Amino acid sequence: MLKKRLTAMAGGGAFALVFAVLLSWYSTAPAPAPVSTVTVYKAPTCMCCGAWVDHMRAAGFEVDVHDVADLAPIKRENGVMPEHGSCHTALVDGFVIEGHVPADLVQKMLDERPEIAGLSVPGMVVGSPGMEVPGQPAQPYDVIAFDSNGNSGVYAKR
In this predicted model, what pLDDT tens digit does every residue of 56-108 receive, in sequence order? Predict the structure, then answer.
């Protein structure tokens, strides 16, 4: 009887040891990557900018919105050339996002971390995120990558 109790206790001790090791492994496992916060500067009355914010939130980004009367200084400070301009400017993890850039391309840029200042969808293209118009087909558009020296090129076509 005593032998059975000792064997059962030893088995229980082994279970406790395995449980403790697993628990310590899970507590030291790397944490998931933090969600990037996108800081958006937009005009207070711009509904399409609000729709883009909703698009970014739906994709899992945290979004901090700042309504401002004049976006020109923010665009200048962040190297957005007039030809890349749109209705709102956003900042995320050291990059500039100008206009209605799709969330999946923002995430791709954050994952790849190319040597660019940011991405832009110049103008306000129908069908880009936040610019959907019921009954109108989406227009094809380019997502432009730009650097701090004014160089730019097509990052993706939509």
Answer: 999 999 999 999 999 999 999 999 999 999 999 999 999 999 999 999 999 99
What CATH fold (topology level) applies to the domain 37-157? Glutaredoxin (3.40.30)
pTM beyond 0.85: no
CB 131 within 8 A of CB 100: yes
Q: Decide if 125 contacts 100 (C-beta within 8 A).
A: yes
* Domain assignments of the chain as residue spans, ordered by start: 1-30, 37-157
Residue-wise DSSP of the chain:
-HHHHHHHHHHHHHHHHHHHHHHHHHHHSPPPPPPPEEEEEE-TT-HHHHHHHHHHHHTT-EEEEEE-S--HHHHHHTT--GGG--SEEEEETTEEEEES--HHHHHHHHHH--SSSEEEE-S--TTSTT---TTSPPPP-EEEEE-TTS-EEEEEE-
